């Protein structure tokens, strides 16, 4: 089956994993894609155990199959029309999910988000998957109710390199019949370079804001024409990029960000914006994988 027709969701038996299954079902339904539920085997290797190691492995696999059965039943009850499958993969979670991403249009994972320790654990799975997956990754975060008119939010820098991210954001807004908020943060831009000024001539914040607005509007012109039914607003602020997205994301139903390059914002290192959103956003985060081949 073509990877473009498969959405994969990774589970671990937690409530947050079931929330990821619910999200993946709602993503797959309007697109007519198949849904694959996957769990990797995390077998502990204790220094000492009174039980033979084969028994430990069997217990872990049995627990994984129970979790799969619960998730599969849940998905089939909610969306009986979907083609849903489930499988236990004899690999640790990260390698298992990365391998699954090679055959998927989207990989979905949950986030427990309970405390700092949970965030460290998240970083070992979700952040690794978001960084290295062969497809886009959705990290399902947040437990707050979503308002019917909650927007989809996307971050841009106007450099012309975020077409894949914008395409994903406009598609999400269109499918969800939601407004789209395009966020742009410009505090990290060099004042002299941004204004095209000579050394010694310092632009005003108002001038920089206007230039940022013009850049964003020029970027959006073609996308507005492609998606005339999507209501588009902008959020242009003098702030750190990740902080700006976290702020506007507090009332969003989804935040969309690029996975590499500048992460959708100027002046940011590889994955830094996406990584912070994956750890701290108050709603699901879609990390869009940019194609590296023609």
From TrEMBL:
InterPro entries (alphabetical): Rossmann-like_a/b/a_fold, Universal_stress_UspA, UspA
SUPFAM superfamilies in the record: Adenine nucleotide alpha hydrolases-like
Gene3D superfamilies to which the protein is assigned, alphabetical: HUPs (3.40.50.620)
Domain UspA, first and last residues per copy: 7-141, 152-289
Superkingdom in the source lineage: Bacteria
One Pfam family matching this protein: Usp
Entry's family note: Belongs to the universal stress protein A family.
The name this protein goes by in its record: Nucleotide-binding universal stress protein, UspA family
Source organism (scientific name): Cryptosporangium aurantiacum
């Amino acid at each position: 089956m073509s990877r473009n027709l498969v959405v994969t969701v990774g589970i671990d038996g937690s409530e947050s994993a079931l929330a990821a299954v619910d999200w993946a079902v709602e993503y797959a339904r309007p697109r007519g894609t198949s849904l694959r539920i996957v769990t990797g085997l995390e077998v502990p290797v204790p220094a000492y155990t009174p039980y033979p190691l084969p028994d430990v492995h069997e217990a872990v696999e049995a627990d994984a199959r129970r979790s799969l059965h619960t998730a599969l039943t849940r998905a089939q009850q909610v969306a009986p029309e979907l083609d849903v499958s489930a499988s236990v993969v004899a690999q640790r979670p990260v390698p298992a999910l990365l391998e699954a991403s090679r055959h998927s249009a989207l990989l979905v994972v949950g986030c427990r988000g309970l405390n700092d320790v949970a965030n460290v654990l998240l970083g070992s799975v979700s952040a690794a998957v978001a960084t290295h997956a062969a497809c886009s990754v959705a990290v399902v975060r947040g437990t707050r109710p979503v308002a019917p008119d909650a927007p989809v939010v996307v971050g841009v820098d106007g450099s012309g390199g975020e077409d894949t991210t914008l395409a994903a954001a406009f598609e999400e807004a269109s499918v969800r019949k939601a407004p789209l908020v395009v966020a742009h943060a410009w505090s990290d831009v060099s004042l002299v370079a941004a204004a095209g000024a000579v050394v010694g001539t310092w632009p005003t914040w108002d001038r920089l804001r206007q230039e940022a607005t013009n850049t964003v509007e020029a970027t959006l012109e073609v996308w507005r024409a492609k998606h005339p039914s999507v209501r588009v607003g902008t959020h242009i602020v003098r702030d750190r990029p990740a902080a700006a997205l976290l702020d506007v994301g507090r009332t969003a139903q989804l935040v969309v960000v690029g996975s590499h390059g500048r992460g959708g914002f100027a002046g940011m290192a590889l994955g830094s914006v996406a990584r912070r959103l994956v750890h701290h956003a108050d709603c699901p985060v879609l990390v869009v994988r940019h194609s590296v081949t023609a």
